[in-house]
Amino acid sequence: MMSKFVKLFAVALLLTACSKKDDKLSELVFMTSDGPVTYQIETAVTKDEMSRGLMERKSLAENSGMLFVLEGQEEIAMWMKDTYIPLDMVFVNQDGKIVWIYKNAEPMSTRLIRPQTQEPLSAVIEINAGDIEKNGIKVGDTVQHELLKKK
User: Fold this and answer.
1) Would you tell me how many other CB atoms lie within 10 Å of the CB of residue 35?
2) Is there a domain that residue 15 lies in?
3) Which domain range does residue 126 map to?
């Protein structure tokens, strides 16, 4: 009897953990000239989430990534410290338009990546390196996500 209870508890705990992880994912769509490209992404909104980013991850699923929401930040610099996955970075302005792209950021690098644009930014999106080319994502394309609504 105790064994059944322990197994049932373990299954319930596992299901709870899985559902919490899934709750953190949301849909982000790149509107490219070739059509929409959909990603399932995590969001980084708090200072702790933004500091941690994708650090310590060994892999990133296809068409997934992380959205960093930059509400009210004047300047932004990204880096790859403790990040094992090569990434493409997409910088988005307040209208949801892609204004700068950084391809194939070097894993584990502490070199700062600063966007080469004067436009105020609302977000940075990190995706697997090579996705920019593979999906035809370009400067001027737009991004749709619930946290990037036009004001």
Assistant:
1) 9
2) no
3) 25-148
Q: Quick check: is 18 in a domain?
A: no
Q: Is the Cβ–Cβ distance between 37 and 62 less than 8 Å? A: no
Does 79 reside within a domain?
Answer: yes
pLDDT tens, residue order, the chain (151 aa): 545 443 444 444 344 444 334 458 999 999 999 999 999 999 998 889 988 999 999 999 999 999 999 976 668 899 999 999 999 999 999 899 999 999 999 999 999 999 999 889 999 999 999 999 999 999 999 999 999 876 4
Q: What is the CATH number of the domain that holds 122?
A: 2.60.120.1140
Amino acid making up residue 147: L
**pTM above 0.85?**
no
Let me know: does 117 contact 76? Beta carbons within 8 Å: no
User: Of 95, 103, 29, whose CA–CA distance to 67 is shortest?
Assistant: 29
- Encoding tokens for residue 91? 């910088």
